[in-house]
Amino acid sequence: MIVAVLLIYLVIIIAVATVIDARHVRFYMSGSDNVTQEYGTTFKDPGIYAVSTGKLFGEGNRQLEIKTEGTVNTEALGSYTIKYGVRYLFRDYSTERHVNVVDTQPPVIELKHKEGYEASWMTGYVEEGYTASDNCDGDLTAKVIRAENEDKIIYTVTDSSGNTATAEREIQYIKTEPRIVLYGDENMVVTASAGFTDPGYSATDGAGDDLTQLVQVDSNVVAYLAGDYRIVYTITNELGNSVSAVRNVTVIPANRPDVVTPDTKTIYLTFDDGPGPYTGKLLDVLAKYNVKATFFVTAANPKYYDMIAREVNEGHSVGVHTYSHNYKSIYSSEEAFFEDFYAMQDVIYEQTGCYTNLYRFPGGSSNTVSSFNPGIMSRLTKALTDMGYKYFDWNVSSGDAGETTRTNVVVDNIEAGCRGMKASVVLQHDIKDFSVNAVESVIIWGLQNGYTFRALDMTSPDAHHGVNN
Ligand code: ZN
């Protein structure tokens, strides 16, 4: 009984003492409760212990058992909490430590170097390569920003935590610009002709390599028109820098004899579109009266090509009319025109051994059938003149091109047209029998009336229509 009472007292005393003592748990933490931990390093808890303590009896000297909760993963950025708990006298006590895993390491940029590489003027610097890696983000090569200037390249990369790395590369350039050498004269003077032949050029770079193939040629030379032109030869490198050389080309008109105005009334009989089946008969008539005429020939009837030789051999003039007589083709471009023109010159050369300086435009220089190509007649009349050719239209029409098919009307037209004229250039076609048949009457009339018959040549008076296109 007494024991029981004593026990009760003891419990009460302990309880009172405990309440008065207010025993509780105190933690002693080494290090900060807010730790910054570098990414990828090993986290080691700085330590902690706990003891009981109270107002009356002070701290106990026995370390209490601590239960730790929470882990720190230093392979993942973020905030971690470690919780330390102690159970003491039926109560739970706890404290926390915060650990922030951070990345403060900048990425690493590595520059590659190719053995013996040299940057040339032509290519500029060609990147040899680089990599960027980060302890946290891994491969950052694709995020590298490259800033290139004259002598160096600066590479910059920033990781996801905002850490920036830079690297710098010095560039050794072969900076010597290539040299473009022009063959022939830098200032050329040439006579108008169908085509201009560049005397050539070459280019070498500072290292002596041949860059001729890389030269861009920009020429505005129009070889068949007198004028001042420029050819610019340029090499452009991959940075957009250029080196140029310039050739000036002056195209001058060909020398031409002065026009001699005949002192007697003169008739120039001209025949287009031959030779043909009636040309031989015509030449016989002309020979009979020793009258010279002019033939503007075509390639329409190869069977009669030998008549061209006969025309020249018998003292007549031969001029180019056209190879094809196809307006759409001839007047489509200068190139097409000259192609046709020279094709006919070749036929004439084959027959006579000579080229001719005389020309008659299909449709005449005043034609509007060419108006599908605006200005072509203005350009062609100037071109032929600059090149030293002489083109003739006519000032007397025989009417044999559609107006009539009767010989006596052709005769009347020609006589009426020539009457009172100092110099008549008569248009006929020797592929038309009825027109050829008119010639003898015209000759007889002309000779009886004081006219001289002549063949056209470079000194003959112009018979130019107004150019309408
Ligand atoms: Zn014609």
Descriptive report:
The structure is a single chain. With 469 residues, the protein is α/β, with parallel strands linked by helices. It is rod-shaped and about 185 Å long. Strands 21, 22, 23, 26, 27 and 28 form a six-stranded parallel beta sheet that branches. A four-stranded mixed beta sheet has the order 2-6-5-4, with no helix packed on it. Strands 16-20-19-18 form a four-stranded mixed beta sheet, with no helix packed on it. The longest helix is centred in the first third of the chain and has 20 residues, at 2-21. It has helices at residues 2-21, 279-288, 306-313, 327-330, 334-352, 376-386, 407-418, 433-436, 439-448, and strands at 24-29, 34-38, 48-53, 67-69, 78-88, 91-102, 108-111, 119-120, 130-134, 138-139, 145-148, 152-158, 164-170, 173-174, 179-182, 187-191, 201-204, 216-219, 227-236, 242-252, 266-272, 294-298, 317-322, 358-359, 390-391, 396-397, 423-429, 452-453. The protein is built from nine helices and 28 strands. The structure holds zinc ion. Zinc ion (ZN) binds at residues 272-273, 321, 325, 362.
Q: Strand portion, in percent?
A: 25-35%
Q: What share of residues is helical?
A: 10-25%
* Overall pLDDT level: 94
Tell me the radius of gyration: 54 Å
Bound molecules: zinc ion
Uncertain runs are none
Structural class: alpha/beta
- Taken from the alpha-carbon principal axes, the silhouette is rod-shaped
Task: Specify the number of helices.
Answer: 9
